[in-house]
Structure formats: C-alpha cells, structure tokens
Amino acid sequence: MGDRIATQVQLPVLAYRLVFRDPIFNLEELDDSAVSAAFAAFRPWNVSLENIKVKEDPANFSEEATEFTLLGGRITFSITPGGCAIAMANPNWSEADLIIQIGNAGIAAVLKATGAVPDKQVATITMHLTPQTGTIAEITSKFVKLDLGKITGAPAQSFGFSVYREDLLWVVDRSGAFPNSLFFRMDRWFRGDMSLEQVAHQLNADEITLLEMLGLEVS
Asked: Structural domain boundaries of the chain?
C-alpha cells in the first residue's frame, strides 16, 4: 500500500439498470400498479408525493419514466416500460447496504406488481481521480507503449486506455473537468437473476482491482 499514490475522488456517480425480458406496454399498469407498489415499498425511507415525478415530454417510449427521489434527492429510482433504474450521486461503499435495501425494495415491488421478468442488469461507476503527487501521464504511460516525443517532438501530457470484455468495460482517460486528473469508468453486465448483493460485491472488486492496477489509493 505504501507505494500507491494517494488520490482524491471527485464527482462519483453510480448508475444501475434492471432490464425486463419483455417491456411493459400498458402505461396505465405502470402508473397505477407499479408506482403504487413502489411508493408503499419506500415508506421506510419517508417517501412522500413530493418525491415522485413523471418525466415530461419523453422523446420516445423508452424514455417514459416515473421517478422517486430518496435520501434528500441523492438517490433516484426510476420505473420505465423497459425496466427499473437507480442513480446516486456521491456514493460511498459504506452506504452499500442502504443502497441495496432501497433497490431491493423498489425492484421487488415493481416486479410483483407488473409480473415482469428480469432479463439482465448493468451497473456503472464513474468518477474523477486527482492524484496528490505526480502527473496522470506518469500513471497511465505504463499502459500505452507510445513514445510521442519521437513522433511529434513533444511528450504526451496524458494517456488513456479502454478494456473490453463481453461482460465489462473499463475506461481510464484524461478528465475534462479537473486538472491533472483521470476520468474513471466501469461498466458491468450481469444476468437478471443475480442479486443486488452480488452486483455490489463484483463492482467493489472491480474498483479495487482497477485502482490497484493504476497504483492509486483513495484517500
């Protein structure tokens, strides 16, 4: 751990989506049964009518959505014809159990109310990483075998790379939001029958692996 660079995390975002095997084409069923069921499921977190809104002027059927906001607006749980989605700003692994509880409650309520069958799940974590010492070019140069100085006469300020697999995508690139920072993104696809606990465990393992690979330690 001592040779890893202390790093500040900025603007972390968690996004999760459960995709139904077959879309729910009956919007009245979504609006009545699913929304009512989710409202009841979220009562332990003091949800009220003020925490519910319907997306205005969707561009197409896939964008139809009813959104619940919880934990002071930090978590959004959405119900759409194609599935359920969760978004959270500034997530922290210390809150994983709470996020899982909320997600399980909402998803179980919607599935029971609609009879929908889960097909697949996708989860994404994005963040910006600012190392406290060194440059991002020094961190990423070991992954990109390109001596730009020989080609253009000037060294590169940063490097980026992507890793693709059937069930995952990792992106490490220069941050456009913060100086001398990396943009970090992980996507993971899962079967529909995997639990949120399993999804969270795998995401955590992926994040640890990628940070260790970069030689970074979150401070």
From this structure: 1-16+123-219, 22-116
